[in-house]
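=== RUN LOG ===
request id: a7f3
mode: sequence -> structure
chains: 1
length: 188
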Amino acid sequence: MSKVFLPVIFSIFLLSGPTAQSLLAAKGVKKVNNKASNKISEKIAQYKKRLEKLLSPVDYHYVAAGKPDPFKPFFRTEMKKGIRSKSNTVKKRPESCDTPLECMDVGQLTLVGIVLQPDGDALAMAQDASGIGYTLRIGTRIGYNDGKVVSITRDRVIVKEKVEDLRGKPTFRDRTLYLHPEEGDESS
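=== RESULT ===
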């Protein structure tokens, strides 16, 4: 057991100074030979050097030459300004609209309610993202692409829009607003 406590006591002896030596001598602890004390003092010196090296400040300079800017996106994307046809005309938002519904896309509307009257007339209520409500009837014009409401059923409103296909020819596309979007397919 004295073999285990001897290095501990000796390290305390080295760290505390001459007062610890007198205490250890008073308790009858034998002096450790010089070879062992030299090894321990060398290890302590090595530990001090390592500690000083670890705690010393590191001088580092960032050189941005040849590296990408971390605050810029990897890919540059541009917003589509419109659909180009073969005649290189760009279709944009209309500058003036007869109604607010003609100045917004069909996808910006959310269907809130549908009223079917006994005489067959139908009425739908839609709102935009800001909560402003609009009344939709068959024949109401909606959207940038000359869209018109063509059908109102108990769970959806179908809008027919004029768009250009890949060849630049005008075609019609049906856009559907569902009363409960989780039940229907929003991709159409």
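=== NOTES ===
The chain has two domains: 2-55, 98-178.
The CA atoms of residues 14 and 41 lie 8 Å apart.
=== END ===
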